[in-house]
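Deliverable D2.4 — example input (structure tokens):
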């Protein structure tokens, strides 16, 4: 009989007994405890002090210096100053009255010309030929009229003697009358052809200065197409471009004109013409101020500065705050300014509406009073929570 193998039972090893530190180590730790406790306390104190100092540094931020200026109230209708140029009162575009090819241009921009001087000339050979044809038509009409007149005389004699009928006489009379009319028409055509030949010379109608030229020799121009611009007379005007926001100020008061090339010279002026349509590019309106007799003969093209002072209102008009243009900042579509609260050392934001915005100064309307300190520099880097120190502009 075969013997069966028996697996030995699985035995779980017993846990080793806990070993206790030797008595010598415990005695050493007991000796070090008086020294370790103060060291731990000192380290914790240093860590706590570091956190406290960091928080103190964050809260003790130094105040930021802001440049401010005091708000001033000014009348809403302040003086309007515009810059332009001096132009002639009469500027005439000169053009040929017949089409053709320019053979010669005798003047350039800036040239002074006398009345009757030839400014430009067209090739005139075709017009000379047209004149010859018209003269030939006149001679033919004269010959026809002489024949018809002689026939009329003979018909009258024959009718008086009874050798010609009344119908033949009437026909001779009609033929002679038609011949005379054709002669008159031929003479008119000859005069027209002579005039068209004369129109090939572009002449100055008065003394003046050539302001600009718009065509060159060899260019074919149409009838009536401007070739150059001629300024005539001594009357002068100041031509300026007016923004649409300042249109109400025009024509309400006196206008004075000064000139950069002539310091100290002032000429009074009046608004003579205002363009009814804005320029499509600059969106400004062209205004022409006529200068008085003191401005006659001024050099053309010099820079003129027109100052329009509005007429005073019975009560002086409403007043608005005037600040530096750099004081205005925007929150979306809303204009804002910073007002410094000197007592609290903080900034307060105020909403304003723009009445007039220039390169250096702005007129605004809002909760602003005379003497308020408005920040004028670095307005986009400020915050209402930061402490400030005020520095006023001189």
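Example output (designed residues):
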């Amino acid at each position: 009989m075969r013997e069966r193998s028996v697996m030995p039972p699985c035995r779980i090893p017993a846990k080793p007994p806990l070993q206790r530190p030797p008595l010598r180590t415990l005695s050493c730790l007991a000796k070090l405890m008086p020294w370790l406790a103060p060291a731990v306390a000192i380290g914790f104190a240093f860590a706590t002090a570091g956190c406290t100092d960091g928080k103190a540094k964050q809260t003790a931020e130094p105040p930021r210096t802001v440049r401010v200026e005091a708000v001033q109230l000014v009348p809403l209708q302040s003086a309007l100053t515009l810059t332009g140029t001096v132009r002639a009162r009469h500027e005439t575009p000169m053009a040929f009255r017949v089409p053709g090819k320019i053979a010669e241009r005798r003047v350039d921009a800036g040239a002074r010309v006398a009345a009757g001087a030839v400014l430009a000339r067209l090739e005139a050979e075709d017009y000379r030929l047209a004149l010859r044809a018209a003269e030939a038509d006149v001679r033919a009409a004269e010959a026809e009229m002489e024949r018809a007149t002689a026939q009329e005389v003979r018909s009258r004699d024959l009718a008086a003697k009874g050798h010609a009928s009344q119908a033949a006489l009437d026909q001779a009379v009609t033929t002679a009358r038609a011949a005379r009319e054709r002669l008159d028409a031929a003479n008119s055509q000859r005069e027209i052809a002579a005039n068209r030949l004369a129109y090939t010379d572009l002449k100055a109608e008065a003394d003046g200065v050539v302001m600009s030229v718009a065509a060159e020799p060899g260019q074919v121009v149409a009838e009536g197409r401007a070739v150059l611009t001629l300024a005539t007379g001594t009357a002068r005007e100041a031509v300026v471009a007016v923004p649409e926001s300042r249109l109400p100020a025009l024509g309400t008061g006196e206008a004075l004109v000064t000139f950069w090339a002539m310091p100290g010279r002032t000429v009074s002026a009046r608004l003579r013409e205002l363009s009814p349509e804005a320029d499509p590019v600059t969106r400004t309106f062209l205004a022409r101020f006529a200068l008085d007799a003191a401005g006659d003969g001024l050099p053309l093209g010099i820079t003129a500065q027109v100052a329009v002072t509005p007429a005073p209102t019975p009560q002086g008009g409403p007043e608005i705050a005037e600040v530096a243009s750099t004081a205005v900042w925007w929150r979306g579509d809303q204009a804002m300014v910073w007002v410094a609260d000197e007592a609290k050392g903080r900034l307060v934001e105020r909403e304003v509406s723009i009445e007039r915005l220039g390169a250096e100064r702005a007129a605004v309307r809002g909760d602003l009073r005379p003497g308020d300190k408005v920040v004028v520099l670095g307005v986009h880097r400020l915050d209402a929570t930061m402490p400030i120190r005020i520095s006023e502009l001189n």
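The radius of gyration is 51 Å.
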